[in-house]
């Protein structure tokens, strides 16, 4: 039962990645593209967690945590650049 749920989750997250890639390439505004890039990072984290569950390894969870921290900092930096035009004041 768990294997079937994992396979369904992999497929659904892959579809979400494809839709986010479309929004990243065709976004009407720069804010939409930043949001799509952030969501792609969140979906990548979900994929890593699913790989960790499937392989029963804790290494994937640590990598997912690092990716979450980097994604958060990157999103904040891009938003600050949009607001002020400069990241470091």
Describe the structure.
By secondary structure, the chain is an all-alpha fold. The protein has helices at 2-26, 30-55, 59-84. α1 packs antiparallel against α2 and α2 (30-55) runs antiparallel to α3 (59-84). It starts with a helix and ends in a 5-residue tail after the last helix. The model has no long low-confidence stretch (mean pLDDT 92).
Q: Which properties best describe this structure?
A:
single chain; 89 residues; mainly alpha; 0% strand; flat
Global structural class: mainly alpha
Low-confidence blocks of residues = none
Largest sheet, in brief, is: none
Calculate the terminal CA-CA distance, rounded to whole Å: 53 Å
Order of helices and strands: HHH
Query: Can you count the helices?
Result: 3
Shape: flat
- The strand count comes to 0
Query: In percent, how much strand structure appears in the residues?
Result: under 5%
Write down the overall mean pLDDT. Answer: 92
The Cα radius of gyration reads 15 Å
Oligomer: single chain
Tell me the helix content: over 70%
Quick rundown:
With 89 residues, the protein is mainly α. It is built from three helices and no strands.
Please render the helix and strand layout as text.
Blueprint: H1 2-26, H2 30-55, H3 59-84
Helix pairs in contact: 1-2, 2-3
